[in-house]
Amino acid sequence: MERRLVLTNEGARHPFRRLLPPPPPLVAAASARGREDAKLFLLSFSAFFTCFYTLIA
């Protein structure tokens, strides 16, 4: 579960949190995470394939 850093209740906000920029939209973060997951999968797959191939050869 992801909790947003900025609270919706203005009375409960900390002064330092007011200085932070607003969080990015969740839709853009989800699509960027999907690309990162695909890149990590391809990197892990190629690393495993390379290690496995060098052990056999």
List keywords for this structure.
single chain; 57 residues; mainly alpha; rod-shaped
Written overview of the protein:
- With 57 residues, this protein is an all-alpha fold.
- Helix content is 63%, strand content 0%.
- The protein is built from two helices and no strands.
- The termini are far apart.
- The model has no long low-confidence stretch (mean pLDDT 77).
**Nearest-angstrom radius of gyration?**
20 Å
Q: Helical element count?
A: 2
**Pairing-aware structural class of the strands and helices?**
mainly alpha
Mean pLDDT: 77
Listing every helix as H and every strand as E from the N terminus to the C terminus, the arrangement reads HH
Helix content: 55-70%
Largest β sheet strand count, sense and barrel closure: none
Low-confidence stretches: none
Distance between the ends: 45 Å
